[in-house]
Specification:
By secondary structure, the chain is an all-beta fold. Helices cover 1% and strands 43% of the residues.
Length: 345
């Protein structure tokens, strides 16, 4: 398990003429570990952490970056030691250094404001934080346990079909109208949601052809990393164009019959377009949500931003009513004469 080490600083008087306390013991060190969910950032790939420390409400050191060395330890420059009088220190740590908002770790507030996930799914990143308290006697030798938790939600979309009458090809994925801006409080680990919403999507050139085994349709961009929130679903029946900005999930789709006829997009609307379903889940921080779309019996609705929004992509199964008419007798008298049997004239 990796350790973050902060080594050796002499505490000086206000005049900076002579030291008033000096600790030559083991430097402040951390033993980072990850939570168990949404493992986009792991113990193995965590290369740097950012830490601020407080003695009571007074900053002991401002935010410093600690880089992982070849020996597995995280070190910074300058380095700090434990107070020799066993005073407790509180630590606030996070990664990456620039997650997408403005971070302030000071005496008055410990927050990140204006956080927004990157508009491109490929550029979205995990955001992890940890808080711990330690002192010289308890933690000089063993280090401070620093457990990081994931503060975003991770979204993966997979799709399948058991319907062999059609071929289904997917070339994109979309999450529509989730809250896109929020503030994070490092002391409570809570998010305060804004009102802005956004659409996040990824398209790719080589489509995924669906079969009976669920396949990822995320493309090369990887999974989404979004803000935890309670979603309010799009209503394709009463609000087809989605003026209320309800949440939905969509895939960029082409459906053809096995004989070759294009069913979706509707023939006049191109080679592929979005098919959507409403979602209303409560996304909780630190959880990975895997949406398994089953297209065996349907394919959702036309995306609210496409022509014919809210229209079902497929109708119900083709079926027939059969009426077989009764047989009607029709008779005809046919002579069986051969000519030999005719009487002589």
């Amino acid at each position: 398990m990796a350790m973050a080490s902060i080594a050796g600083l002499a505490l000086t008087s206000c005049s900076e003429d002579e030291p008033i306390s000096e600790n030559h013991g083991t430097a402040i060190s951390f033993r980072p570990s990850m939570g168990t969910r949404a493992t986009e950032t792991t113990n193995a790939n965590l290369k740097e952490i950012n830490v601020a420390s407080f003695m009571g409400n007074t900053p002991y050191f401002n935010t410093l970056t600690f880089n992982k060395g070849a020996d597995g330890y995280f070190t910074s420059d300058p380095t700090y030691n434990w107070p020799g009088d066993n005073t407790s220190l509180t630590f606030y740590a996070y990664s990456p250094a620039n997650p997408g908002g403005v971070i302030t770790l000071g005496s008055d507030s410990k927050v990140m404001t204006g956080f927004s996930p990157a508009s491109s799914i490929a550029n979205q990143i995990d955001f992890i934080t940890a808080t711990a308290t330690g002192n010289k006697d308890d933690n000089e030798a063993t280090g401070v346990p620093l457990k990081f938790d994931h503060r975003l939600v991770q979204i993966e979309v997979r799709a399948k079909t058991d319907n062999t009458a059609y071929t289904y090809k997917v070339s994109g994925v979309r999450i529509g109208e989730s809250v896109s801006k929020a503030d994070f409080d490092f002391t409570t680990n809570n998010w305060s949601l804004g009102t802005d919403k956004a659409i996040y999507d990824e398209t790719y050139a080589t489509p995924v052809e669906l079969g009976s085994v669920p396949a990822s349709v995320m493309g090369e961009g990887g999974n989404l990393m979004l803000i935890p929130q309670q979603l309010t679903a799009w209503n394709p029946t009463s609000d087809a164009s989605n003026s209320a900005k309800g949440a939905y999930l969509a895939i960029k789709l082409q459906i053809n019959t096995v004989a070759g006829a294009q069913v979706y997009p509707f023939p006049s609307e191109g080679d592929c377009t979005w098919a959507a379903i409403p979602i209303d889940d409560n996304w909780e921080a630190g959880k990975k949500y895997v949406y398994n779309l089953d297209l065996t019996h349907g394919a959702g609705y036309v995306d609210p931003h496409d022509p014919d929004p809210g229209k079902p992509v497929l109708g119900g199964p083709i079926k027939f009513t059969v009426d077989v008419t009764d047989w009607v007798d029709s008779s005809s008298d046919l002579p069986m004469d051969t000519g030999k049997d005719k009487p002589a004239e």
